[in-house]
UniProtKB/TrEMBL annotation:
PROSITE patterns documented for this protein: PFKB_KINASES_2
SUPFAM superfamilies, sorted: Ribokinase-like (SSF53613)
Annotated family: Belongs to the carbohydrate kinase PfkB family.
MF annotations from Gene Ontology: ATP binding; kinase activity
Residue intervals of the Carbohydrate kinase PfkB domain: 2-300
Matching InterPro entries: Carboh/pur_kinase_PfkB_CS, PfkB_Carbo_kinase, PfkB_dom, Ribokinase-like
Organismal lineage: Bacteria, Pseudomonadati, Pseudomonadota, Alphaproteobacteria, Rhodobacterales
Keywords: ATP-binding, Kinase, Nucleotide-binding, Transferase
Protein's name according to its UniProt entry: Fructokinase
Length: 305
């Protein structure tokens, strides 16, 4: 299976009551959690790791994983509250306010890390789980002990959530050196590498260790940079409701395509052809297009594509 390692939280999404008052409704979420759900809905053998609260929110998270066919056997139930992310939308673009002190995610201990067996063929890391401590140190430790498994990383940079930029950059550099595949938005790429041409910056990021760097650029589509050059795929045209979960779904579509074709091996990732990369980028884009066409992080099932 592909084991997705990172945050599970509750997105408090903006709604309006029958009387017209502003309100928030709770939905299972988190960048890495969304990717796990999307993988499960696409029919990929997927697992999820993150300590989850033993309260009513934790029950919602586990129920959502069960519904998508994602195993969470490696995720301990803990007596700590769930992280909450209050979401506001401006022109369909999501902004987040996180409440994360003392939570199941944030206070994860090294003792809660899973033991990886032969059922885990690939690992996915990303999101806010890599920023704070002690959880960030824990996920970085798990990444460092991935063995010869394929590792994909989506740093999903949220500058407003980062309190110690130097420490965050050092952690990401260590994980970039281990990752086989890295997916960044163009905004993430500029935060990591500075100003400049996207293609040059992406190849500079690849020089840090990854075999493959994917850059998503919204309506402009996505490009994959590798040792042999660059492959690209256009975005699927769609009426955008909101962008919640778009990048997370793209990650799942890309991994699903590699899994379908038997490419989730380290040596295979290094030698992917432009044709195989374009097919994987295209599936990621198609899956993300469905997600942005409806409210919230609601990834498609395979028969919807």
């Amino acid at each position: 299976m592909i084991l997705c390692c990172g945050e599970a939280l509750i997105d408090m999404l903006p709604r309006e009551t029958a009387s017209g008052e502003a309100a928030f409704a709770p939905y299972p979420g988190g960048a890495v959690f969304n990717t796990a759900i999307a993988l499960g809905r696409l029919g990929v053998a997927a697992g999820f790791f993150c300590p989850m609260s033993d309260d009513l929110f934790g029950e919602r998270l586990r129920a959502a994983l069960d519904d998508a066919g994602v195993t969470h056997a490696l995720s301990p139930a803990v007596d700590r509250p769930c992280t909450l992310a209050f979401v506001t939308l401006t022109g369909g673009q999501a902004q987040y306010a996180f409440y994360d002190t003392g939570t199941a995610l944030r206070d994860m201990t090294l003792a809660e890390l899973p033991v990886l067996d032969d059922s885990v063929r690939a690992l996915f890391f990303g999101g806010i789980s890599l920023v704070g401590d002690p959880c960030g140190a824990g996920f970085a430790t798990l990444c460092a002990h991935a063995g010869d498994r394929v590792v994909m990383l989506d740093p999903n940079i949220r500058p407003g959530f980062i309190r110690d930029e130097a420490a965050c950059r050092a952690r990401l550099d260590a994980m970039l050196a281990r990752a086989d595949i890295v997916k960044v938005s163009d905004e993430d790429l500029h935060w990591l590498m500075g100003a400049g041409d996207v293609a040059e910056l992406a190849q500079g990021l690849r020089a840090k260790g990854p075999k493959l760097v994917i850059v998503t650029e919204g309506a402009k589509g996505a490009r994959a940079f590798h040792a042999g050059g660059m492959a690209q795929a256009a975005a699927s045209p769609v009426k955008v409701v909101d962008t919640v979960g778009a990048g997370d779904t793209f990650n799942a579509g890309f991994l699903a395509a590699l899994d379908d074709a038997g490419y989730l091996r380290g040596d295979a990732v290094a030698g992917l052809s432009d044709e195989a990369l374009k097919a994987a980028l295209s599936l990621g884009a198609k899956a993300a297009a469905v997600t942005v066409s409806r409210a919230g992080a609601n990834p498609p099932r395979r028969d919807e594509l």
